Amino acid sequence: MANNDDRIIYLTKRQREVLKLMIAGYSNPHIAETLSVSLSTAKAHVSAIIKKFDVKTRIDVTREAMKRGLLD
Predict the structure, then answer these.
(1) Is 44 exposed, middle or buried (0-12, 13-18, 19+ CB in 10 A)?
(2) In sequence order, what DSSP letters do the residues of 49-70 get, joined into one string?
(3) CATH of 11-67, one of 1.10.940.10, 3.40.50.300, 1.10.10.10, 3.30.450.20
(4) Where along the chain do its domains lie?
(5) Which residue has the higher pLDDT, 14 or 69?
(6) Which of 40, 33, 35, 38 is nearest to 14 (CA)?
(7) pTM of the full predicted structure?
(8) Do 32 and 26 meet the contact criterion of CB atoms below 8 Å apart?
(9) CB 23, CB 65: distance < 8 Å
(10) Cα separation of 53 and 11, whole Å?
(11) What distances in angstroms separate CA 51 from CA 3, 54, 55, 66, one per listed residue?
């Protein structure tokens, strides 16, 4: 069984922007405001990122992204 480190995760440019904000601790409303998108759009991006990382929480996404060196 492959662990999560073995999978390549492809993120769109917008998803990378959202991921950076998630790691910075931004809430969904704050992400929406910062990116000038609706709250439902921000939530959709966060959900898509969580799904792509195959984890359950935002904290898990942050842990995985940092472990993989995806962000500075």
Answers:
(1) middle
(2) HHHHHT-SSHHHHHHHHHHTT-
(3) 1.10.10.10
(4) 11-67
(5) 14
(6) 35
(7) 0.85
(8) no
(9) yes
(10) 10
(11) 15, 5, 7, 17
Q: Determine the longest span between alpha carbons in the chain, in angstroms.
A: 40
pLDDT tens by residue, 3-56: 555 678 899 999 999 999 999 999 999 999 999 999 999 999 999 999 999 999
- The enclosing H or E element of 48 equals helix 39-53
d(CA 21, CA 71): 11
DSSP 14: H
- The candidate with the shortest Cα–Cα distance to 66, out of 18, 23, 15, is 23
